[in-house]
Structures are given as C-alpha cells and as structure tokens.
Design goal:
The chain is of the alpha/beta class. It is globular. Helix content is 35%, strand content 13%. The protein is built from 10 helices and 12 strands. InterPro entries: AKR (IPR020471), Aldo-Keto_reductase (IPR050791), NAD(P)_OxRdtase_dom_sf (IPR036812), NADP_OxRdtase_dom (IPR023210).
Length: 331
C-alpha cells in the first residue's frame, strides 16, 4: 500500500506541501529573488499544491514572492498564510485582536495578489485576547469569502477545543518530527477528534534529519539554529550520533534521510500533512519524490525508538521564546 492524498478543509492535497519560510527568513543560504520565484514555480510543476507562507517571513517579502510566483497559477495551489506576530517597528509581539486580523488580511491579499486565502492562521496565541474573539473575527472573514478556513499555529489542545466551539478549525500547525514530539502530548489526538488537519512544520528537524547539517557552529550569524539548545555543545554531539544511526536506517531502506523522516511523520495519522521547506531545487525534488512511500510499521517503530523525547538532548527552543508557545510541553 502507498499513502494517499489527504484533505485540508475539504480540499484534497498532496500530503507533502511546501513551507516557504526559508526563502525569506530564519535560515542562512537563501536563494536570490529570481531563484526563489523559479523554485516556487518549479514546485507547482512537480506536484506541490499546498504552499505555506506568513506575513512574518521577511516582513512581507515571502508573501510578495509567493504572489509573484503564482501569478496566473493561483488556482493550482491551496494557499495558506499567517498573521499575528509582529517583529519590526514599534509594534512587536503577538496581536490577534479582531481589528488587527482584518487589517492584516487585507495587506496579505494585496501582497499575494489574490482575492482569497484558502487557509489563514493565527501564527501564535494572543494571551491578551480571548481565542473566541479572534476566531469569531476569522469566522466573519470565512463568511465573506476572503478566507477558506481558519488555522491555529503552536497552540494547545485546550485552545483548539475552545476555538472549535466557535467555528470549525481547518488546521493546526506545529513543529513535529521524530525529534520534536510535543504534539504527541495532546494536540495530535485533539486534531483527530475534531476533524482538524495537523500540519507538521520542520518535519525533517530543521535539516538535521535530511542529512543537511554536521557543524551548526559553522552556520552564518542570523541562522536561528545557532541559538537553539539542541545545536550547541555536548547536546549537538549526542544528537549527531542519533543522526548517524538514523541515516543508516534510511540507506538500508533505499530512501534518503529526508524521505524517511517525512514518511515517519505522515505515518502518525491520516489527518497529518507535512510542509518541509527548502531554498534548493534538489531538496524540493527529493522531498516530494517518494511522497506516497508508506514506511513499514517495523521501520517506523525503529525510528520511534531511536529518536524521541528521551533520547534527543536539549530543548527545541531557548528560554526567551518558550513563553510565546501555547503548545503543551514535556516536564
């Protein structure tokens, strides 16, 4: 058997979508403007039909680039974007006030050169605004046809249930891979119960499970991984040993490490999709090449036992970021 296409908000998509962030934000080695647009267009050509962007990524740059790349091809892609995190000017932090949601959407529609966004996320929970108020404002945008569905990002199962009591939640996006398991505490199951698609970001562990990083300290300044506990000192040396064992499993199974990690993520439920990101055409092609490969159960169990919350050294985020995350965490 092979993995089948999956649904987000009732629309069938390839379970491997494209996270567009790395074209504009957070990681080193970003492609040129022209190469970024070329990559996005090539993605559509080879079967990607779910693009994920956000206002935060490049402070509007990513939405602008995606809009340019999809000109004349908008109908071929299930398009998701996010609002709520502000990282420039006087306004910094999270703002999901109803008025902000509406005004931010109008900017995104303009940058994306479209009259609707298929899936619109609150990028983080605004602890100063009841989730019911934010979802109510987004529900109005659904009624107006400006967005197709409501998404939440990095929020807890309790927040999801409160939100879903106001309006169906199409998707919950949270970091998830063999080495980041917080979603397994409660969110994965809550999504299954509520009919909410779980969208896994960083499904190849920020490049680690794609055999893409051997020396994090060699990364340029500005790459967010340099400040993450898992990528430093003794933590990294311990984690690298796990990576080598993981790579050996992939070689034995005849897939790349990235393909193994993606297949493991998709094996966690039929309501799960993944959005690996990349700035390189070769990785773009690699990530989708075996999209329908179903990992054998014994191999999934082997990966599960090798890389998990108990065996990975270091937290996924440094302390300053943790208060902004609503997702459940391990003690």
């Amino acid at each position: 058997m092979s993995i089948q296409r999956r649904k987000i908000n009732g629309r069938e998509t390839n379970p491997i979508g494209l996270g567009c962030m790395s074209l504009s934000w957070a990681y080193a080695g970003r492609p040129s403007e022209e190469d970024g647009i070329r990559l996005l267009q090539h993605a559509v050509d080879i079967g990607y039909d779910h693009f994920d962007t956000a206002r935060l990524y490049g402070l509007g740059h990513n939405e602008t680039q995606v809009g340019t790349a999809l000109k004349g091809r908008r109908d071929k892609v299930f398009l998701a974007s996010k609002m709520g995190i502000f990282a420039s000017g006087e306004k910094r932090g999270v703002d999901c006030h109803p008025d902000t949601i509406r005004s931010e959407l109008e900017v995104s529609l303009k940058l994306l050169q479209t009259d609707h966004i298929d899936l619109y996320y609150m990028h983080r929970r605004d602890k100063n605004v009841p989730i019911e108020d934010s979802v109510g404002a987004m529900a109005d945008l659904v009624k107006e046809g400006k967005i197709g569905g409501i998404g939440l990002s990095e929020m807890s199962a309790d927040t999801l249930r409160r939100a879903a009591a106001v309006h169906p939640i199409a998707a919950m996006q949270t970091e998830y891979s063999p080495w980041t398991r917080q979603a397994e505490i409660a969110v994965l199951e809550a999504c299954r119960e509520l009919g909410t698609t779980f969208v896994a970001f960083s499904p190849v562990a920020r490049g680690v499970l794609a055999n893409g990083l051997r020396d994090p300290q060699g990364l340029p300044d500005g790459d967010i991984r340099k400040a993450m506990p898992r990528f430093t000192g003794e933590n990294w040396q311990k984690n690298l040993a796990l990576v080598d064992a993981f790579n050996a499993i992939a070689t034995r199974e005849g897939v790349t490490p990235a393909q193994l990690s993606l297949a493991w993520v998709l094996s966690r439920g039929e309501h799960v999709v993944a959005i690996p990101g990349t700035g390189k055409i070769a990785h773009l092609e690699e990530n989708i090449a075996r999209w329908d490969w179903q990992i054998p159960a014994a191999v999934a169990d082997e990966v599960d036992a090798l890389i998990n919350q108990q065996t990975v050294s270091g937290h996924r985020y440094a302390g300053a970021i943790l208060p902004t995350i609503d997702t459940e965490d391990f003690a």
